[in-house]
């Protein structure tokens, strides 16, 4: 039986936009080809034929007035442009505080161009001539990466006074500075911070962190607590965060 698609489905698919892309490119043929390829992929495409117009559209996108905001998801930027070149444009966009992914295009393709492009805040770099499939693949990858990092930025963190723990990123800052913890230290701290003031016995900690098959001594817990105190506490001999509860074990805060 032939596969039939309901007309509503077709219309729905063509109306769903994957993201809004700005293409800043002075060569008309490339600009139109790129716009067409991305449009066919389901992106909403805006174009600018020079740096000035590009800047106008890109910064308007970052406008704090929601009615004015264009909310771009990706910018494709040619290096050599009239009025404002691609590098300056990229720098200006980043200066505005925008984290929108930027893909730079260049006819030259020298290593220096690539390095400078990435230094001024571009996320990826493509040398002309390029195929549309390559371009579309790079755009997809950039958008995915950006969406992922935005989601991570929204992940909850654990905070206690001056200690902040980022569960998704496996990192900890103390008094605003990055601190390197071993995986076990990190997991102990995460458990403590997720359960403030709860008292844990050494056996409970071993069960939770090392697992029921752990054959070592419960002194292992004391050693890890000591290491953690050295990293977290201002005065490890008089801890304020990792407290000993005599006869029971440890608690946090
Ligand atoms: Ca150009």
TrEMBL record:
GO terms (BP aspect)? regulation of DNA-templated transcription
Per UniProt, residues of the OmpR/PhoB-type domain are 155-253
* Portion annotated as DNA-binding: 155-253
Q: Mind listing the UniProt keywords for this protein, alphabetically?
A: DNA-binding, Phosphoprotein, Two-component regulatory system
| SUPFAM superfamilies in UniProt | C-terminal effector domain of the bipartite response regulators (SSF46894), CheY-like (SSF52172)
In the UniProt record, the signal sequence range is none
Gene Ontology, cellular component aspect: cytosol; protein-DNA complex
Q: Which SMART domains match?
A: REC, Trans_reg_C
Per its UniProt record, what InterPro entries does this chain match? Answer: CheY-like_superfamily (IPR011006), OmpR/PhoB-type_DNA-bd (IPR001867), Sig_transdc_resp-reg_C-effctor (IPR016032), Sig_transdc_resp-reg_receiver (IPR001789), WalR-like (IPR039420), WH-like_DNA-bd_sf (IPR036388)
Modification 4-aspartylphosphate occurs at: 78
* Gene3D superfamilies for the chain: 3.40.50.2300, 6.10.250.690, Winged helix-like DNA-binding domain superfamily/Winged helix DNA-binding domain (1.10.10.10)
Provide a Gene Ontology MF annotation, just one. Answer: transcription cis-regulatory region binding
Q: Which Pfam families match?
A: Response_reg, Trans_reg_C
Q: Where is the Response regulatory domain?
A: 20-143
Q: Which PANTHER family match?
A: PHOSPHATE REGULON TRANSCRIPTIONAL REGULATORY PROTEIN PHOB, REGULATOR OF RPOS
What's the protein called, per UniProt?
Response regulator transcription factor
Organism lineage string: Bacteria, Bacillati, Cyanobacteriota, Cyanophyceae, Oculatellales
